[in-house]
Write a structure and sequence with these properties.
With 181 residues, the chain is α/β, with parallel strands linked by helices. The chain has 6 helices and 9 strands. The chain is globular, with a radius of gyration of 15 Å.
Length: 181
């Protein structure tokens, strides 16, 4: 058809992607970095806020935090190379507004423990699932645990699009509407 952006085909793909990930909504974006930056902005995270990220993540994770106007706080990882809950807890401040959990090398981080610790708090949880599409934790797919999941569909990823693309997943209708607008 020659249609590469927007339109019925993209909307159908978003719906299929959401269904695959077990979430209510999927919103296509330009790339994985945009997915993170736009998620932060939609969650009203920006200037003066701190976002905790794993120190070993690709530079785009920190870049997206900076693009949104917030300050990345790099923390250590556990033996599995995923973000350490102890390191997160030791790095919290009154400015902490979000944690980006990166599922590295197809190996999901223990996001359920992180969610349990911060349940009821004002700290938002974003998943960087760029390297984990299809990976599961206790039967649930990555990208379905946090306030939103961010995917890169870059040609070098295990699931990719022609050119570059990204996807944001969420169960929040309000967040999905904010991201679409």
């Amino acid at each position: 058809s020659g249609n590469y952006i927007l339109g019925d085909i993209v909307e159908d793909f978003e719906n299929d992607f959401a269904e695959y990930c077990g979430v209510n909504f999927a919103i296509s974006v330009g790339n994985g970095t945009d997915a993170i930056a736009l998620s932060l902005r939609a969650l009203r995270i920006g200037v003066g806020d701190e976002v905790i990220i794993p120190a070993n993540s690709f530079i785009a994770t920190a870049g997206a935090v900076i693009e949104a106007g917030a300050k990345p706080i790099c923390v250590d990882v556990d033996q599995d190379q995923n973000i350490s809950l102890n390191a997160i807890q030791n790095s919290l401040s009154e400015k902490t507004r979000a944690i980006i959990v990166v599922h590295l090398n197809g190996n999901p981080a223990n996001i359920q423990n992180i969610k349990n610790v911060f349940k009821g708090s004002k700290i938002r949880i974003i998943e960087d699932a760029a390297q984990s599409i299809g990976a599961t934790l206790n039967g649930e797919l990555t990208g379905s645990f946090g306030d939103c999941g961010c995917f890169s569909l870059h040609p070098l990823k295990n699931f990719h699009m022609f050119g570059d693309a990204g996807m944001i997943t969420t169960n929040s209708g309000d967040l999905a509407k904010e991201l679409k607008d």
